[in-house]
Amino acid sequence: MKILMASILNFDRDINGVVASASELQQVLNENGDHCRILTPYTAGASTLAIRSLYWSSYSFQRTGWVLFSIFNLFIKGYLIHRQANRLTEEYSLFHAHDFISALAFQLSTPQNASIVLHTHFHDAPWHEFAACGYVRKNSPGYFLLRLLARRTLRHPRIQLVHVSLDNARFTSQLISTKPSPATVLYPGIKATEVENAGSAHEDYLINIGNLDLRKNQTRLIHILSELEQLGVSIPLMLVGRSSQMMRQRLDNLIQELDIKSPVIIAGEKSISETRQLLAGAKLYIHTARQESLGRTLIEAAASNTPAISLAYPAAYEILPEMAILDSKSSNRQFAGYLYYLLTSVDTLEQVRQEQFENYLNRFTPEKMLAQYNRIVEHVWS
């Protein structure tokens, strides 16, 4: 089987769940004897006018914040994927997009009988996601254009939707008024972490992974750390992920305001392998995100044999045992109280670890992902 994948992300620079999941799927497919290639706008070559326009529009948007540059940037990304795919359509039998812009590019560049898979990683409606990132202003002409293109692409008869979680399948079906199919859920397949210096595993620090922003909700972790200190527990907290200067300053101000004595280590963005080693060494992973399509870092914690707890959101129940999920309406004091209980109860913490590792073995290994992908391909071609 020859699969051509596409994403508008830069796989050499961006480190997030979409990039990691797509890269893992490519690796597993290639190891299985299939041929899988990933196209991005950044694989198009550096000497063309279009690629220079891509970098110019991105730079101009970052400098000015004008959404005209961001819309132009998205258009160029779609064009570059379309141009590359157009040259390769006869070589591949299946086309797999990781965003609606790439799926639209495949629609325009592939034969009418070609199978196109769109893998939904949405944590919100895609046009809302672009607005939240500042690419467009809500209710602007660019916003309505993206909404129109996204809806038409998601509903197109040539597009077969594959979802990152059962909850994402339900959400997408509500978005476009179709009936979800549980057969088309593809969980990531994450290799178990082989910990370097195994004797240092599970040191006394808490960890959170993800871009430092409002959606990931790391400010709440600082409040929880303060409550934990009032219960007599002082333990370092490590935050791993890209952050803006404004967000780092907000966290620093909150740490000073609450007079936090426990070390808060803002480690910055790390490679996937570095992140997994830090995760494997932690005492506990804490997940506080407000919205998630799945929650890949919870699976990485399970694959690293590091117990995890999370504020409740629908897809969390697909990953963790119920005893590791706290009501999203829990107060910071209640959250800290449960943390205190886990950190001082070795047996309970071990039970959480064992149950989430069993869930990992049952759903999230590379072997499980490959088997499900083959079933999805059979479904698409049928």
What's a quick, concise take on this entry?
With 382 residues, the chain is an alpha/beta fold. The chain is built from 14 helices and 11 strands.
Radius of gyration: 21 Å
Strand content: 5-15%
Order of helices and strands: EHEHHEHEHHEHEHEHEHEHEEHHH
Overall mean pLDDT? 91
Task: Trace the largest sheet across and list its strands.
Answer: 8-7-6-9-10-11
Number of strands: 11
Structural class: alpha/beta
Largest sheet: 6 strands, parallel
Task: Describe the overall structure.
The protein is of the alpha/beta class. The protein is 49% helix and 13% strand. The chain has 14 helices and eleven strands. It has helices at 17-31, 49-64, 67-88, 100-109, 126-132, 141-155, 166-176, 218-230, 245-257, 272-281, 296-303, 332-344, 346-363, 366-381, and strands at residues 2-6, 35-39, 94-97, 115-120, 159-163, 206-209, 237-240, 264-268, 284-287, 308-311, 325-326. The protein has a six-stranded parallel sheet with strand order 8-7-6-9-10-11, sandwiched between helices. Strands 2-1-3-4-5 form a five-stranded parallel sheet, with helices on both faces. It is globular. The two termini are 15 Å apart.
Q: Which helices and strands occur, and which strands form pairs?
A:
Layout: E1 2-6, H1 17-31, E2 35-39, H2 49-64, H3 67-88, E3 94-97, H4 100-109, E4 115-120, H5 126-132, H6 141-155, E5 159-163, H7 166-176, E6 206-209, H8 218-230, E7 237-240, H9 245-257, E8 264-268, H10 272-281, E9 284-287, H11 296-303, E10 308-311, E11 325-326, H12 332-344, H13 346-363, H14 366-381
Parallel strand pairs: 1-2, 1-3, 3-4, 4-5, 6-7, 6-9, 7-8, 9-10, 10-11
Helix pairs in contact: 1-14, 2-3, 3-4, 4-6, 5-6, 8-9, 8-12
